[in-house]
Write a structure and sequence with these properties.
This protein has 355 residues and is an alpha/beta fold. 28% of the residues lie in helices and 22% in strands. It contains twelve helices and 18 strands. Helix 6 packs across helix 10. The protein starts with a strand and ends with a strand.
């Protein structure tokens, strides 16, 4: 199995490739920002991103994206996929099926009427752009008949193409919040969207002052997060999920501090935000490989406070950055002296291979 973290700017776009019965299978988790597929450069020339390159390669190899998982509607997860759909009229032909919890599907699941405003197309410049994008995405996958149209909710179990999925998030209450009227989310007191980074303090200083306050963003709480098991190996993908939901699910699946989930790799929630991973969550998963997907352009992710929390629990691990230039910006010489076995690092082509 190969797992590749695309350069998705401040977002997530993850390609998982493996063989099943001799056939190459591909799972794409999210599509990053629109520029992950295409953007205009400074000179006005079009610049293709890694999502475009990935799609082209899959097509050239006569393969498909057998499963597209859209974890939630934030622009840094859905934007690249929508740009792909806009520019590539044949996009649907190389997609097997899609997992996506839309407002319409959620309303059916809870047998409640959806808010009328959520059904309207909303201009991208609107403060409600994520909702508008979600509606456009839902309309496309329904029209092209590639939508699995099954609710993806915590504690459910799926098996597809020889891969097993245990769903960790969203919980029913977090999912139900999406039925409420979308409003512009106010800047959060927990500083997940701060303008200034917290890199001036050392890891040790952060550990001494650490205080956990959980993310309250509705969109993030609706994230599809899961354990993926292939060939008896576990991989954890946390999207932007809320930690209490993930913790509760892990416990319900039988994991504990004394009997943690053994994982080959963990995709850290919300690009390393300090509000999306608590100590209890870290203690429920045993791994030596964590990955962070962001260039830090927005919300000054990852937070060093989160990295310090991780170091306090697991000081003998590797933390991979898909934008390795962040490492020098975040870590000081004192950090390396205090935690010599805590290894911020990068991977060539941001690709991991598991035999």
């Amino acid at each position: 199995m190969k797992i590749k973290l695309l350069k998705a700017f401040n977002g997530d776009a993850i390609l998982i490739s493996f063989k099943e019965n001799g056939n190459v299978r591909n799972i794409l988790i999210d599509g990053g920002m629109p520029a992950t597929y295409l953007q205009k450069g400074r000179n006005g020339k079009l610049e293709y991103g890694e999502l475009k390159e990935t799609v082209d390669k899959i097509r050239e190899n006569n393969e498909k994206i057998d499963l597209l998982i859209l974890t939630h509607v934030d622009d840094d997860h859905i934007g690249g996929v929508l740009k792909w759909f806009e520019k590539d009229k044949e996009a649907h032909k190389i997609i097997g099926k899609v997992w996506f919890n839309s407002g319409r599907l959620i309303s059916e699941y809870f047998d409640e009427q959806e808010i009328a405003e959520n059904l309207l197309e909303i201009p991208d410049e609107s403060t409600l752009t994520s909702i508008g994008q979600g509606v456009r995405f839902e309309d496309y996958i329904e029209e092209k008949e590639i939508w699995d149209r099954s609710i993806i909710i915590a504690l459910e179990y799926f098996e597809y193409l020889g891969v097993k999925f245990k769903i960790l998030s969203p919980s029913p209450d977090k999912l139900k919040l999406l039925l409420g009227k979308w409003e512009k989310e106010k800047p959060e007191s927990l500083d997940t969207s701060a303008d200034k980074n917290d890199y001036e303090l050392t890891l040790t200083e952060h550990i001494k002052k650490d205080k956990f306050i959980e993310d309250q963003a509705v969109h993030n709480g609706s994230s599809i997060a899961f354990i993926m098991t292939f060939d008896k190996k576990n991989f954890v993908f946390l999207a932007d999920a809320h930690p209490t939901v993930v913790v509760n699910s892990l416990k319900a699946f039988g994991y504990s501090k004394e009997k943690p989930l053994n994982a080959e790799l963990v995709k850290i929630s919300h690009h390393g935000s300090k509000a999306n991973t608590n100590v209890e969550l870290l203690e429920l998963i045993k791994t030596n490989k964590y990955v962070i997907s962001t260039n830090g352009d927005k919300h000054v992710h990852p937070h060093k406070q989160y990295l310090a929390r991780l170091a306090s629990v697991n000081d003998n691990c590797e933390v991979y950055f898909n934008y390795p230039e962040k490492i020098e910006e975040i870590f000081s010489a004192e950090d390396y002296l205090d935690f010599p076995n805590f290894k911020p690092t990068s991977k060539e082509n941001n690709e991991f291979t598991f035999q």
